[in-house]
Design brief:
Number of domains: 1
Order of helices and strands: EEHEEHEEEEHEEEHEHEH
Distance between the termini: 24 Å
Largest sheet: 5 strands, antiparallel
Structural class: alpha+beta
Shape: globular
Strand order of the largest sheet: 7-11-1-12-13
């Protein structure tokens, strides 16, 4: 639990920027939805930009980081979860509380209003918290798709993984296909953390924790069937103080780290010195 209180005053102290590479260790599938199905294409295509290049939406990465922290903190019981969406088959439940020191709500933000909990209770939330964390869309580094890789892909930049679902009574196979960005593909990740009070420095460590959790979990669909293993590398951290925006002060390069373990270690020292 953070040391934030209901009386904590918020003002911009500065912004912490983290940039790094996210490398796919297995094929990655972040779905575009059934509405984008192409004739003769995979049953489940990946999301692509206007130029037809796969990318990782910031919302997908951000949501996965939040979910991993919620599980790590044991905040996934019906009493801790509220509905964001109740559409049948598309229910979305996330953790939210009114506790002023709730680190997840502080890092990812929360909205006030009438909320329905997963256990059936209805509550009136009064706490409004601005999100500290921004996760940008991560574009694909086209150079990471080598000539050798392209020779074995089903499309210019993606592969198609075939799967079967077996009926347990008739033993009938129901084939399906999953479009994936191939192993070895690299995406350029950019994160920003707004430091709005001295207590916000405590939240940066939780972000590093969530990135380490993701490396031992999965991103996107099909994670339990082998898809979505990723790792991060080449981290760079920079600080833009309030003076950067108001008086033209220079951006401060904080450190570089080869992996997420190094990022976590360096952040502990760097965040305490931010001014």
């Amino acid at each position: 639990m953070s040391s934030h209180t209901a009386e904590t005053k918020l003002r911009l102290i500065g912004k912490l920027f983290l940039e790094g590479d996210m490398v796919c260790e297995t094929g990655l599938h972040i779905g575009a939805g059934k509405g984008s199905l192409d004739l003769g294409g995979a049953d489940n295509p990946v999301v692509k930009d206007a130029f037809g290049r796969p990318y990782v939406p910031g919302s997908s990465l951000r949501g996965r980081l939040r979910a991993l922290l919620e599980h790590a903190d044991g905040l996934v019981s019906p009493a801790d979860l509220v509905y964001l969406s109740r559409r049948r088959g598309q229910e979305v439940r996330i953790h939210q509380s009114d506790l002023p020191g709730d680190e997840i709500c502080l890092l990812f933000g929360r909205n006030p209003g009438r909320l329905e909990k997963a256990n059936g209770e209805t509550v009136e939330s009064t706490a409004a918290t601005p999100s500290r964390l921004t996760v940008y869309d991560a574009p694909l580094d086209l150079e990471s798709i080598t000539v050798q890789m392209r020779e074995n892909l089903d499309d210019e930049l993606t592969e198609v993984k075939s799967e079967n679902a077996i009926d347990r009574i008739t033993c009938q196979a129901n084939p399906r296909t999953l479009e994936r960005v191939p192993a070895g593909a690299r995406f350029q990740v950019r994160l920003a953390v707004d430091i709005l009070c001295d207590e916000d420095r405590e939240l940066v460590g939780r972000l590093a924790e969530s990135l380490r959790l993701l490396e031992d979990d999965s991103l996107g669909g099909g994670g339990s069937r082998g898809s979505g293993r990723v790792r991060f590398s080449g981290w760079k951290a920079a600080w833009r103080s309030r003076g950067y925006y108001s008086a033209g002060d220079a951006e401060v390069s904080l450190f570089e780290a080869a992996d997420t373990a190094g990022l976590q270690t360096n952040l502990r020292d760097a965040v305490s010195q931010l001014a």
